[in-house]
Amino acid sequence: MSSAGGTAKSDLLTLTVPAHSTFVRIHQIKDGPIWFGPSPGSGPSYRFDAPAGQYRTLYVAQSLEGAFAETILRRARRILSRDYVELRQWTVLSVTRELLLIKLFDEGLAYHGVTADICAGDDYANSQAFAGELHRRYPEVDGIAYRARHNNGQICYALYDRVLASQVQTVEERKFSDEHTVTDDLMRKHNASWDPMTPLL
C-alpha cells in the first residue's frame, strides 16, 4: 500500500510504495502476469507507454476493483460477453523493493500542471509524451500513480521497466471462470451486465 499523501521532491510530487506491497494485474490466461509492454518493435498502445520506445511499461492496480475498471471496462463497456472475461485471470503481484512514483491524482494534477484528462482522455498522445518526459528527466522515478478512468476511487500504477521483472513476484493467481461470485459482484458494482447473446470473439 502506498502513502496516501504526496512528498515534494524537487519539482515533483511523489509517493513511496514500500517493498513487498502488492498490486493486481488482469491479463489473458495464456499470457504471463509480468509483462512490460509494448512488445519489441511495436508502437505505443496504452496511456503511459513510451512515445518512441524509450522504455516499456507494466500496468497494475492497487486492488482487483481498480484492475477490473481499467482493464475489463477500459472502453466503458457495460455489456460484456462472459467468454471475454473468462479468457482472463487476475494475478496478485508483489515488489521486492521500494518504489518512487509520480503522484498524478488529487493535488498531484495541479502540482504537475495537468488536468484529469491526462488520466482519462481518449487521446493518448499527451499522456505518452508526459510519461516520456518524466522518464527522461527523472531517472530516480519508477513510474506513475493515477486514478482509474472508469472508477476514480481506484488507484492504478504505470511502472517503468526500471522496475526489473526479477523485482516483481507472483503471489496469487485466480481465474475469472472459477470465481463467478466475485466476477458478478464486480459487474454489478459497475452497472455492467452479461451479453445474453452468443459472443463473437
Describe the structure.
- This protein is of the alpha+beta class and 201 residues long.
- The protein has one domain: Diphtheria Toxin, domain 1 (Alpha-Beta Complex).
- It has six helices and eleven strands.
- It has helices at residues 64-71, 82-86, 107-111, 117-120, 125-137, 180-189; strands at residues 7-9, 12-17, 22-28, 57-61, 79-80, 88-95, 99-104, 143-148, 151-160, 168-175, 193-194.
- The chain has a six-stranded mixed beta sheet. Strands 3-6-10 form a three-stranded antiparallel beta sheet. A two-stranded parallel ribbon has the order 5-11.
- The protein is globular, with a radius of gyration of 17 Å.
- The N and C termini lie far apart (36 Å).
Order of helices and strands: EEEEHEHEEHHHEEEHE
Radius of gyration: 17 Å
For the sheet with most strands, the description reads:
6 strands, mixed
Give the strand tally: 11
Uncertain stretches: none
Reconstruct the topology from this structure.
Layout: E1 7-9, E2 12-17, E3 22-28, E4 57-61, H1 64-71, E5 79-80, H2 82-86, E6 88-95, E7 99-104, H3 107-111, H4 117-120, H5 125-137, E8 143-148, E9 151-160, E10 168-175, H6 180-189, E11 193-194
Parallel strand pairs: 5-11, 7-8
Antiparallel strand pairs: 1-2, 2-7, 3-6, 4-9, 6-10, 8-9
